[in-house]
Amino acid sequence: MTLLTPELCADRAAFCARFGGVYEHSPWVAQKVFDQGITQSDDLAARMRAVVEAAGHTAQLKLLRAHPDLAGKLAKSGELTRESTSEQAGAGLDQCSDAEFAEFTALNDRYKSRFGFPFILAVRGRNRVEILENFRERVGHDPETEFREALDQVHRIAALRLDALT
């Protein structure tokens, strides 16, 4: 099944309703792609990635900041988006021990303080142990490297979300 039907290519509201959540709390990505013109044969993941890459640092930072903490307070209180809830649960982050939750909380706080946005990782196919190892490593990165890594992870999450829509 193709993601882009003739109806979606012709109807901005329908297109944005379908793809507006691919980038976390950032429907502007889908809106911009639609406004640039789309066809059924477009590589939607590449088009969306290009929009984000061209958006500039300020918009990219806002996009990164739209992401929730991994195994954070929003997850515990059930306030994540449907997509984030599913992704985090699939990695077992909804089953953290008290010690794991405490480590995630400490790492989240340290990471946000250091970089100004939450730790972002495409968690599908990973488990809590792998995620914590990756988290511990990345918190030591320099800001430029980590900004790029976070954006790359956002693009990976978006591509996985698009795949899930087919």
What report would you give on this structure?
By secondary structure, the protein is mostly helical. It has two domains: 58 residues, no CATH class; 100 residues, UraD-like (Orthogonal Bundle), CATH 1.10.3330. The protein has ten helices and no strands. Helix 2 packs across helix 3. The N and C termini lie close together (6 Å).
Q: Mind sketching the topology for me?
A:
Layout: H1 6-10, H2 12-19, H3 28-36, H4 44-54, H5 57-65, H6 73-77, H7 82-90, H8 98-115, H9 128-138, H10 143-164
Fraction in helix: 55-70%
What are the low-pLDDT stretches, counting only 5+ consecutive residues below 50? none
Number of domains: 2
CATH superfamily descriptor of the largest domain: Oxo-4-hydroxy-4-carboxy-5-ureidoimidazoline decarboxylase
Number of helices: 10
Q: Give the overall pLDDT as a whole number.
A: 89
Largest sheet: none
Would you identify the CATH architecture of the largest domain?
Orthogonal Bundle
Structural class given helices, strands, pairing?
mainly alpha
Give the H and E element order: HHHHHHHHHH
How much beta, percentage-wise? under 5%
The total count of strands amounts to 0
Gap between N and C termini: 6 Å
* CATH level-1 class of the largest domain: Mainly Alpha
What overall geometry do the principal axes of the alpha carbons give? Answer: globular
CATH topology category name of the largest domain: UraD-like
Radius of gyration: 16 Å
